[in-house]
Amino acid sequence: xxxxLGIDLGTNSIGxxxxxxxxxxxxxxxxxxxxxxxxxxxxxxxxxxxxxxxRRGHRSKRRLYNAKRYRKWxxxxxxxxxxxxxxxxxxxxxxxxxxxxxGGRNYPVLPSFMQWLRMDFDCDGxxxxxxxxxxxxxxxxTNLEKDVNKLYKIxxxxxxxxxxxxLQQQKLLFRQRHWPLQVLHCVVLPxxxx
Length: 194
What we know:
By secondary structure, this protein is of the alpha+beta class. It is 47% helix and 16% strand.
């Protein structure tokens, strides 16, 4: 006996039929079945919406958050290696490396680092600049040869540049592995040489 299986694939269902070709009866279909799945769409107040779009949106947010965090870590490491940030490598590692016995990741709360983030370079408790754009403007317009906090100021301005994606136009630098070091040499060191 020859049998043929017919399958109909729909967007949210599968239809099956078995047909006996050698049967002498008028109806050669011996068995049928239909399997219906849940729709890939959800019902909302404004109509249907894609269930995968919501999941994809959450995944996209997680990836953006992680990329921003990795960018901060890479930038801080380059600034540490060039004495432009008052953070120690051990404190940075406590933040970027997860250790269960230490209670997870711990953001650095050193007073000197917090003052550097607040742009209080002379440690008097008063902000030297109200926003990072003032600092960046001063770095471009004035000569800081006699300033003892010159490297910290340049490092803070560079940290702000990286966090605000000002350097995104230079896509070639971002594609390479050691982009923070290359940006440091292309952007910050010419300011130091002046």
